[in-house]
Each structure stands twice: as C-alpha cells, then as structure tokens.
Fold:
Amino acid sequence: MRAFFFCPSMKKKEIRTLFHQHPDLYECAIAIDDGARPNLTSINGLGRSWAWQDFVEADKNQTAMCWMFPEHDLPCNCHDGG
Structure:
C-alpha cells in the first residue's frame, strides 16, 4: 500500500479504504494534493476531475445521515455497511 498511496488511478473504494485504514498515508496524499492545487490548470486533484478530499467529505456526510432512515427504507438504496 505504501508505494502507491497517492496514485491518481485509485478507485473511490480504495481511497475510502486508505482513509479508514491508513489515515497517515491519506493525510500525506492530501498534503501532496494541496501543495499542487495552486498550480493545477487542467485537473482538479488526485482524482483528476475531482479532489480526493471532496470525495471523502461527501462520503462521510452521506454515511453520517444513514441513522435517519430505517435500513429497509434508505432513499438512495445505500446502506451503512453494517
């Protein structure tokens, strides 16, 4: 995992795993992304058309809302992974 912890070809599932299982490496990747951001002209971040940090924040917000709905009645057919 260490060799490719900031690969722009990572899938969202892999980024989510990095965030939860290797927060130190995730933070390092975000620091790299943040350092490059002022010079980016044709991409938005490590996700190319989106930034990893934006994805993780949106993912956390969606997961945080799962308590509002019974498991069988989630509006977007999601589940909280439990």
Q: What stands out?
A: The chain has three helices and no strands. Helices lie at 12-21, 23-36, 52-64.
